[in-house]
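Translate sequence into structure tokens.
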Amino acid sequence: MALDYFAPGVYVEEVDRGSRPIEGVSMSVAGFVGFTEDVRGDAELFKPMMITNWSQYVEFFAKPGSDGFTDFDAYLPFAVQGWFNNGGGRCWVVSIGTKLPGSPPPPPEEVATRLPTAGGKPSISVNLRLPEGDEQALLPPGEDARIIIAIEESTPKPLPEDAPEGAEPPLDTGEFFNLVVKSGGEELERYDHLSMNPQVETAVADYAVAVLEASEYVVANDISVSGQALSRRPGNGFYEVAPPPYISPPERITRDIQGVRDDRQGIQGLFEIDEVAMIACPDLMRAYQVGLLDLDQVHGVMEMLVSLCENSFPGPAYRMAVLDPPPVKVGKNENAAVAPETQRPQHVAEWLSAFNRRSMFGALYYPWIKVANPRNGGRPIFVPPCGHMMGIWCRTDESRGVFKAPANETPRGVLGLAYETNMREQELLNPLGINCIRNFANYNRGYKVWGARTLVEPDNIQWRYISVRRLLSYIEKSIEIGTQWVVFEPNDMDLWARVSRTVSTFLARLWREGALFGASPAEAFYVKCDGELNTPDTMMMGRLYVEIGVCPVRPAEFVIFRISQWAPNQ
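Result follows.
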């Protein structure tokens, strides 16, 4: 509205009319917590790091030249690889350590950075210089202590100023190099005119290992084989030197997994990232198997994870936790882990009854799956299925939509199952909300995810299916974000109409995509925003009420064909 017109002329005003479209949020971003082989580059221990492909995972959480897996068979690398193989896209990874808690610290030579020669042979090994006793390796890390060693081309030392006139400079044999210690782009130390010849004349160059004894940051050792100094010279380039791995005391593991929300660490740190919509902690099972956690502690972490998914104040709860069944036989010894292939359907049913936690924001898959283990020559290993299953969620979102149940899909990268459940056994598990992964070899269909239920109470049928829970979360979160423009607008009938049109347009689009049931939009949803809901009293309190009802499509879990004989003349 123009305020003043004083001079004659043509005035053009831009007026914002109509509704603003609601853009659907992504429900296909995962969060993982567990052990990794290393923590490098921009990644930090305990803090979430965004990963978009397996190569990025290897870049941030594997040692240089490694395959990304660990020598102690951590499950997180298998889960993340399964996520990407099955269609997962962007995810966030939290490393809670590169060694199992309580492990003995590795010897210095194991964590040393080896600087090779140009021909790939060993030259120098470099470690960070730590205080006496390596106390830093036993404490939670603060700032990143990694440094970079740069090897540069160099020459012999120049002749001194008082050298006789006509003196010949030392012969440049190519063996000489400079070594620069850097951190964060800052040069900390520089050592010029170095050689790998222990008997080199000091007027020509300095023996590298002897000079580095004075370094405040690194400790160097000569690991070169016999030969001339040139053949033992480290190759030019940049080499990362990492501190000894952080090894948590066993009693800290639950705190490390849970993390601190204010510091954005652990599981709680993932809940500070709005786009994360599904979360798993595969190495909770690894910690249980090696005796770092008992079953009650496992239940405590699971309870915390589910409770965090249920509470997303001030916005609607929209995250889901994908749980793995601990390999346990409750009736035998509830605190003893067993081999995953010995856990039968009745055992997992007994365990879930003992856990006794129900939630529409949780999902559980059985059994564990068999995948190739690169650290064991590609031989198979049984791993929790959470990462592969969440990848299928993402794949289904992309190919069909969040309203499609992520089931009757083939899990990629699966070589076998810890236990092959049959129809009668699934009749025990399915009503409990335990989703089975089945082998349909008899039908030439391979392995299939053959369940799509949440862990809600069995009698709460409106939230029985994963797809329904995620669709409603998708609608709620999209509307919450897409209507922020309404706040502080004049609360009148014009605003009511604009809000109704905005929400109705969004829901109509979902109906056309097949997410809502009904022959017409009127049968699929309704949006009410009028004077009956928004009375003078509510408007005086600054409130705007909008009532929305939707009819989500539900999966055809049971397909019944009724067949009888029919005589057309009767």
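Note: Residues 135-143 have pLDDT under 50 and may be disordered.
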